[in-house]
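## retry 2 of 3
previous attempt timed out at serialization; input unchanged, resubmitting
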Amino acid sequence: MLSKLKNNLPICGPMDDEQIVGIDAASMSILEYVGVIFRDPIAPADRKRVGADVPGDHVHLNRALVRDLITTISAEFTYHACNPAQSMRNWANPE
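## retry succeeded, writing output
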């Protein structure tokens, strides 16, 4: 018997520049005004050390700080599997 379910969702496609700018702006607003709660007690202290505002349990990161921190992210990273033989090394910009 064939399923009577029909997928009515539109096909997803790449976002245009305006959509990307909108998501970026919304994300930055959340980091700046709402903040993030870290469950790890070390994380807020680390963020405060680099310039984040940490009133209580929320960490607030302004846009300039986020952009600056992004530049420090390594282009190489490793996905660590439970079985080390299956770990994968990856590069953010494989050119």
